[in-house]
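Q: Start with the shorter request: fold the first protein.
A: Done. Sequence, then structure:
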Amino acid sequence: MGGMSTLYIGVSGLQASQSAINTTAHNLSNLHTPGYVRQQVVFGDRSYETLSVGPVYYNQSGRGVSVMDIRHVRDVLLDKAYRQESGREAFYESQAQVIEEIEGYFGELEGERFQDYLKNMWNAIQEVSKNPLGTETRAALVQSAVSFISKANSIYTDMRNYQLTINQKIINSVNRINEIGEEIHDLNKMISKIEVGDIESANDYRDRRDYLLDELGGLIDISYKELPNGVVTVRAENVDFITENGYYEMDLIHPAGDADPELVVPVWNYLNQKEVFNITADVSTVKENDIGSLKSYILARGSATANYTDVPSQADFDGGLESAEYIRKINSGNYFAIRGSDGRYLTQISYKGKDGQNKTVTISDGNTLDRAAVRGIEKELGIKAIDWTDYQNVNGEAGSSKAYQEAMEYYDDYVIPSSIMTIMAEFDQLINKIVEDINEVISPTMKLASSVKVKDKNGNEITLESGTRVMDSNAAGYGKDEDKTQGTELFSRKHTKRYIEYYATNNNGDYIDENNQVVTDPTKAKKYYVYNYQSEFDLESLYSLTNLEVNPDILSNNQLIPFSTKDGGENRKLMDDMNALWEKDDLVLLPEYSSRKNYQNYYTEFIGQMAGAGELYNDMIAQQEKLIEGIDGVRRQITDISSDEELQNLIKYQAAYNASSRFVTVIDQMLELIVTQL
């Protein structure tokens, strides 16, 4: 029996060495397989046979060697640190990528610099001011204006298109996260099935799962733990993603309300479409919420296409009925007033419903507002109620109005966190300011001191209320054309005339002329040119990029540019005012800034801010790269395969196999001798 037992010991050595050789060969064959972790054979003694027991010892005989486990070597703490820091690096890499892309649109480092277009516009104005009646200088101004506004529109369009490109990256990232969730769930089932008997380790499946967790950690903030049965559960952004029994898909929805319907939002369907990310929360390394490229892309992209109205101005929001923002919204047709100038709520609102029927709805008793009735009108008309008292400052304190505070809250929560929205809004603010300033010089407006009765071109009677913005004909220049056209703007809004023409009437509805004399011909009546807030498509019309162009009338006839006086001479005051625009410090980059800039200095600060953000992100990336390099270096010392070391192991295990083989041969010969010779 002793001989046979010894033979089994030799066989166990053969089996253990063969397993070690196979494991080493498996390591070498996966030398370049992504995510593969080297495997090690763990040997252990088989059970011992007790021959006798003495007072202070056991007399035992070994039964050979066995393979206790084939383990893949990892450090769970290093894995956790690597996934967290690589996720943070991915966050800042995505942010830096966005800034770098947008910087290229302005061409300040290479290519066509927008700054040159700005300077060319200024030079053209200086030249035309020397000879405002000259055909050549007017033509040069128009050409510079065309180049200026075309380049600005092109940059703004490029930013919008890039916003949509990022939107597609978000869609792709969400799809990939769901694919990873499904694959990890399938791997969990395979690993659990293989390891259920505690006989074999599913190392290759575990390697694939760990590789997927590395990738998932770069996409989204995750935490995870392994259960005793080998299943790994994962939480993403602090909610369950992969559980023991399955995984929850992340979905994409198109938001309602003021957000851009083209820009998708990731949600958890199983949590009643709860948004995956709280984009209004402050992001910082301290709070550990600056992790994952998906969140970075969502923040950088933003929730809408921004324009100059997204940068709140205190002056525009304070003043109640005189508030510029209130007037703009009321006149845009996208809002309706619920309070009269006497400070009391309106009792009734009359409107034409979507069914074409005229309706009158009671909304208050003058003091108490029926908010349900107001919401009903908002829903039916698709426009919002607006209260001018929300635009009054509190105790004369600038910037204290409710409307301004709400605008600043939106700005802080949704505009500032988004690189693209911030740059779009600030750039549009510059272009809007230049365009409106120039237009206001050559086609100035004023507010009516008192209400007047007028008729529109169709003969409908209308009252122009006090404060209505109209062309200031006393200050406006004249064209050099035959009709000496007055008030033609240089830059116009597409599908929107600067003014709507109305004809003055008396209380009886008769047309009256400049001397308040009744006339029968409307063309002989006194005219009021009312500033137009709406396009012909009944949409709010802004002097905003993509909606701007050089006035087509001026493109056809530059003699319409109102640089002349009524008698046909040079309007020097107008030209002086035009030149003064470029030296006027009237722009702030951010609402909280107190220092005002002229156009050129604003643009310089704007580009500097962009470059500063890019430099900050690159500094964070460099810091993360060093940190990850250190973590991954230690991790790879444990997990990576060394071909030299594996070849040494192969030789060692081959030698052990040969030794066991020789041992078995000797025992076999001994047994043969005993059996045949006895």
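Q: Next, the second protein, separately.
A: Sequence, then structure:
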Amino acid sequence: MKRFFSLLLCLAMLLSVAGCGNNNDAGGTGTTPPANDGGNGSGAPEGAAAIYRKLYSSEVTTLNYLSTGTTLEFEPAANVIDTLVEYDKYGMVQPALATSWETSEDGLTWTFHLRNDAKWVKSDGSEYAPVTAHDFVTGLRWVVNPENQSKTSDVVCSVIANADELYTKKITDFEQLGVKAEDDYTLVYTLKAPTPYFLSMLTYVCFMPANADFLAEKGEKFGAAESADNLLYCGAYRIADFQPSVLHTFVKNDSYWDKENVFIDEIQETFNKEAVTLAPSLYQRGETDYAVIPADILPTWMNDAKLKDVVAPQRNSYYSYFFCFDFDPQFDAAYEPENWKKAVNNENFRKSLYYALDRVRAKTVEEPYNPESQLIGTVTPPNFVSADGVDYTQLDALKGYSNDPNHGYDETKAKEYKTKAMEELKAAGASFPVKILMSYNPSTANWDKQCQIIEQQLEGLLGTDYIDIVLEAGPSTNFLSEVRKAGKYALMLCNWGPDYADPETYTDPWSLGFTYSWPELSTDPAYETGETYTAEDAAALGLEDKFIGAKVKTYNKMVDAAKAEKLDISARYQKFAEAEAYFIDHAFIIPFAVKNDGYCVNKISPFDRPFAPFGVSTLKFKGAKLLEKPMSLEEYQAAEAQWEQEREAAMAKAG
């Protein structure tokens, strides 16, 4: 489903390469409840170790960060292995194992200068060896060796020169891989093509270092999820105790180069198969510092004066949710696919639905306390990337959608577009009401309820003389392949998460031939350039035969122009913003919201931790401090507002 790998946490990160000077401010936001730190900054009473306790219900199958492709197994790696660069709490890129870097004029060569005080340590904390440029060469060669079957090899193969050739065995000399250690502390990558977002990819596990001697010593036991002794550590923490399905203990790495910004001394993860269910009561008994509050008991907690005071939202993710119109319907004749084709290819019809959808009302099903906090007016979420100190969603082409206080909802416009659409569609031979098949997965909590509200709301505003929304539950398993990829819907909520720090990642669902709504097959004249795809084009692009003779679409042409701008980031982002605005303006998509995992109690603030929408940055505990008590909803909102102000200032400074 994703270009690289779908199990990445799609969290928050910025491509702000101006951060070659270190920013060691890892403190709180100022509105965060005070840490009970006895004046020592750790979050613990004076003289006591700062210990953070949490539960886990699924055991990792490996600690080998070069091998794994799952979020569950990224978290240990994020905390025990450092990367060349890291992201601070505002999403600004900072030096980590590299102190500085530069790129060649053609964008193909990236040179990193490593610090000389980083150490590999064993699980007991004893020093093993210095971290050198050779360790990054070793790690990358391991990933692209097909015998190792790394789950993240495709990330490397997408950007590094000769990586794909080595992985597919077209060549066998690993000296040809586009990574070299010029000396112990100078590392050079050669890319297959200019990649503006390459820096952001360096926080993926596949770009982490590995010591060659230790790797050879351990062999197949490297990273085996049996013992903490099967890894070396160069990050903020080391694993002191690893007992599968019992306990994981992470302790502060005293040899870490930046240990002054590690405030929690120990992280204890205790196994409990019923963690999700039991965590709230265990928190009340003082046995855990973090618990998700499930939706079924959330009202009870929010109506209890004492419990309400410690419940706050989890941070929004960077999974963008939007309503897709299906331009290649493959559903049953009972739902009138040919009539739907006429309707969906009429811009006024699409716009009538765009303006008729009450996003706040639809979101309230999932977020009854502050639904507007998750609504977005663009496909790309805010706080994702910036150019010249300006958030991407605030660029001229997009800021009108981002700042719309009604989030696109406008009853007057909806009815005006309905009138225009009915006149045009009647002339085109369409019948009314237009049946709109809205499919949903019954195993996804509240999706059915949300669809019911949308059905009532849209039909109530636009009239059942105009539309007939038909709800259909798809299969609980294989929903993706059997419904969305099969085109068995007319209007449906879909989502996408980012793979790298560039707006291009949010255009991927509508790449030619991709299985997200097929707008490239639209017959709407407003979407066509006059050019057509030939058989040769289809073969070169790997398209199905149905694209032969199809008109080249304006959106795809605009995206291609943005992709071609490799070196001028400001111009590149402007072009992507214009393409996204075109897509929204012509109602080929209805932006909706970002994903949020609900409410929790948590004795650390999310605003002190690294901020990044992909890679492993947000999984780090570096910078986190224990709070005197978990944040309330009001305290969270105040902290978030202050963080946004501080981030804006940080962006302006970096820009």
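Q: Describe the second briefly.
A: The longest strand covers residues 237-243. The chain has 20 helices and 24 strands.
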